User: Which sequence fits this backbone?
């Protein structure tokens, strides 16, 4: 698994305000969307393309366009929805699917409760969005599920990641046939005793939408 942690001052700047507990939900949503767009530039560096013949006002030339099948963007509900608009802004022609996953607060394991994806993902590049890579369980389960459906290239995009989550994800996807890349805004210090990232930013879903589910 390849891990990309861009060194960019704007990413660090937006993360600072996302971490601040005084940041209200509307501002948090806007910052998450803006940060996602910055991370999307890194995540899509190897998006699949093909030649495309056009004519400028001056002369014919060859450009590029996204290859078919188009990329699939999969936010993990519910917090991943806060990253979707930032990604779609960069890939407006991509398709969007949804996975509903939540963590069992006692076992810290991921449980799937919703699925709106194409049945066949053969030959698809997939971008999986989830703000926090904490224990790594939800992301690992999502990636394995997507590969089982035929996806052959997976990029996971997170705002923050814990070292424990990265290690778990790397171990979990090691036997997969599809390459996996993780793009994250920051790699934090650790997980605490209840599985939250330290220093982190708290519960991303609650801070995005203002209510606990």
Assistant:
């Amino acid at each position: 698994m390849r891990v990309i942690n861009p060194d960019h001052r704007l990413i660090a700047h937006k993360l600072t305000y996302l971490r601040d507990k005084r940041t209200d939900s509307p501002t948090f949503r806007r910052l998450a969307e803006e940060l996602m767009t910055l991370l999307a530039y890194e995540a899509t560096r190897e998006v699949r393309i093909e030649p495309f013949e056009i004519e400028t006002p001056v002369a014919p030339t060859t450009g590029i366009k996204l290859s078919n099948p188009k990329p699939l963007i999969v936010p993990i509900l519910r917090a991943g929805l806060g990253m979707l608009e930032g990604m779609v802004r960069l890939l407006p022609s991509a398709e969007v699917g949804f996975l509903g996953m939540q963590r069992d607060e006692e076992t810290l394991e991921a449980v799937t409760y919703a699925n709106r994806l194409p049945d066949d993902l053969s030959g698809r590049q997939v971008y999986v969005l989830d703000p926090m890579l904490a224990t790594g369980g939800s992301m690992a389960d999502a990636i394995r599920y997507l590969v089982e459906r035929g996806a052959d290239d997976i990029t996971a995009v997170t705002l923050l990641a814990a070292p424990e989550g990265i290690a778990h994800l790397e171990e979990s996807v090691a036997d997969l046939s599809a390459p996996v890349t993780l793009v994250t805004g920051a790699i934090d210090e650790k997980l605490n005793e209840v599985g939250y990232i330290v220093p982190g930013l708290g519960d991303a879903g609650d801070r995005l939408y203002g209510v606990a589910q």
Q: What stands out?
A: The longest strand covers residues 49-55. The two ends are 32 Å apart (CA to CA). The chain has a mean pLDDT of 90. The helical segments are 9-19, 25-43, 81-90, 137-148, 163-173, 204-209.
